[in-house]
Specification:
The protein has 436 residues and is of the alpha+beta class. It has three domains: 3-111, Alpha-Beta Plaits; 150-246, Chitinase A, domain 3, CATH 3.10.50.40; 260-433, Trigger factor, C-terminal domain (Trigger factor, domain 2). The protein has twelve helices and 13 strands. The protein has helices spanning 21-36, 51-81, 134-147, 198-204, 252-257, 265-298, 306-326, 343-363, 369-380, 386-394, 397-419, 429-433; strands at residues 3-9, 12-20, 86-94, 102-111, 116-117, 124-129, 150-153, 165-174, 177-190, 212-218, 232-246, 300-301, 421-426. The mean pLDDT is 90.
């Protein structure tokens, strides 16, 4: 086999492969002979089918398989010999005019780029930090209380107030015409929890069981129901039941109901603090990791393999279709999704992946087994049965690979943070948690 490597443009290369026809035919004959020993055909006993019949029936498909195998093998050997890091699959086409007794192919493909990373000490990164204070613990306990609240029916003449659960019938119309989702019976919602638009809650607040009222309501321009967004409606609402909420006290009984080993108020607060600290640690890691990746990308120079970007686009489109299918969208697997929707994100993912891989190779930042174990143990610690969760991670290589990738990213993040110029910033707990 003779090999010729040609640079086309940037990352694109071409290898010319030459294979003897005799090698192909010899392998085809060998496979047909093996097939003849077991092939079954009407009118013949197993293993007694004539070679001419086997070749006539299966010769084309076997020849196609052999060609794919031999060309693939020749390409792999040539790429290894030339020390090329191939990105994606090659496009292989047969050339005409080959010398007698030979077959010649062109394999066009891309190689992974050289990645140049500038001096990381010149990078500036905003590193976030946050603390769990007593106010955060109090707010979390309030959420836990609300999740366990009970309701009792108010007296018939009691007016609706914030915190009550009401059961209503309502009927809305736009320009005198009903609209989808504008009518319901025995509908329950919590007043003041933001389940309904503010105008709707304001109208119900102060009403009593058995009362009815009509009122105008303007849907916001950005309302999720596009058919009514920005429009004005008239509603009639009838309050059928008013129930007062009762929240459990923060005491030993609440701690016990939550399964806290130290079923005291102090034990409950300590457990809440521990869980919140774990949560903000992961959130800070994610935010700081994003800042590090942004800095890395800004300090790196490289060309992107088109094949890698397209493969990432294809994966994202398939994930989008799977999401649509899970939501019950008809023919989701055939949904037309243009590549351009995901291309910028795909390019960034490929760029970050290549830069991270270069940093990992150059500075031995691979995930160590003890790091993977520590990360899994930490993830599992928030569950009731951590041992089962650990076993679940280790029972699937794909899940382990996901953890390994996270650990590698953490290693890269710590490495870059140690090199770069850091601007420390404390983030309020509510802001980090996305609370108002």
């Amino acid at each position: 086999m003779s090999v010729t490597v040609e640079t086309l443009e940037k990352l694109e290369r071409k290898i010319t492969l030459t294979l003897p026809v005799g090698v192909i035919q010899s392998e085809v004959d060998a496979r047909l002979k093996r097939m003849a020993r077991t092939v079954k055909m009407d009118g013949f006993r197993p293993g007694k089918v004539p070679m001419t019949v086997v070749a006539q029936r299966y010769g084309y498909s076997v020849h196609y398989e052999v060609m794919n195998d031999k060309v693939g093998e020749a390409f792999a050997n040539a790429a290894n010999e030339a020390k090329l890091r191939v990105a994606g699959q090659p496009r292989i086409s047969e050339k005409e005019g080959a010398p007698e007794g030979e077959l010649t192919f062109d394999a066009v493909f891309e190689v992974f780029p050289e990645v140049t990373i500038a001096d990381l000490s010149t990078a500036e990164i905003e590193k976030l930090s946050a603390e769990v204070d007593d106010a955060a613990i109090d707010k979390t306990l309030e959420i836990l209380r609300k999740q366990r609240r009970t309701f009792t029916q108010r007296a018939h003449d009691a007016a609706v107030q914030s915190g009550d659960r009401v059961t209503v019938d309502f009927d809305g119309k736009i320009d005198g015409e009903p609209f989808q989702g504008g009518k319901a019976e025995d509908f329950q919602f919590l007043v003041g929890d933001g389940q309904m638009l503010g105008e709707f809650e304001d109208a119900v607040r102060g009403m009593k069981a058995g009362e009815s009222k009509t009122f105008p309501l303007s849907f916001p321009a950005d309302y999720q129901g596009k058919e009514v967004a920005g429009k004005a409606a008239d509603f009639m609402v009838t309050v059928k039941k008013v129930e007062a909420a009762h929240l459990p006290e923060v005491n030993e009984a609440l701690a016990k109901s939550l399964g806290i080993p130290d079923a005291t108020v102090e034990g409950l607060r300590a457990d809440v603090r521990k869980n919140l600290e774990r949560e903000i640690k992961f959130r800070l890691q994610a935010r700081n990791k994003q800042a590090v990746m942004d800095a890395l990308v800004s300090k790196a120079e490289l060309d992107l393999p088109k094949s890698s970007v397209q493969a990432e686009v294809d994966r994202m489109i398939e994930a989008a279709r799977a999401d649509l299918k899970q939501r019950g969208i008809k023919d989701a697997d055939k949904a037309p999704i243009p590549d351009d929707v995901f291309r910028p994100q795909a390019e960034r993912r490929v760029r970050v992946g290549l830069v991270v891989a270069e940093l990992v190779r150059g500075h031995e930042l691979q995930a160590k087994p003890e790091q993977i174990k520590a990360h899994i143990d930490e993830l599992a610690s928030s569950y009731e049965k951590p041992v089962d969760v650990v076993r679940w991670y280790y029972s699937d290589n794909r899940r382990l690979a996901e953890v390994e990738a996270m650990v590698i990213e953490n290693n890269v993040t710590e490495f870059v943070l140690a090199k770069a110029k850091i601007n420390e910033k404390t983030v309020p707990f509510d802001e980090l948690m996305g609370q108002n």
